[in-house]
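Methods, example record. To illustrate the input and output format used throughout this study, we show the complete record for VOC family protein. The sequence lines were provided to the predictor; the line carrying structure tokens was produced by it.
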Amino acid sequence: MPSRLNPYISFSGDAKQALEFYEEVFGGNLAAHTYGDSMSEAPPGHGDKVMHGMLETTSGFTLMASDNPPGMERTAGNNITVSLSGDEADELRGYWNKLSAGGTVTVPLEKQMWGDVFGMCTDKFGIPWMVNITERQA
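The corresponding predicted structure is encoded as:
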């Protein structure tokens, strides 16, 4: 397998719901293993929480996620955003519509001064996203 770089997102108890949402957005195959599946003694209250989840899509995206175990609290910050970009306008607009539904749009998806269509949103799970659509070269 070649090397790859992909986001790994931490959640505070709703990783399963988030991964299922991203599966609806992007399609693909989702595999999720709970603490109860993976450990002989799961941390209290975490038997049904996701220890490791991975969504692989036909577009070549890989998104991983888990619920933080007790004692390792999630701190949401402004130091990372997941970015989608390309020239497949319909596909990217579809992702945007699904990701922004129920979330917060901080920059509407529209033509920008640099010529691309760009938008920023935070999905309903608190994860920030950027979508940039470049025009196809003739």
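Annotations derived from this record:
The two ends are 34 Å apart (CA to CA).
The first helix runs from residue 15 to 26.
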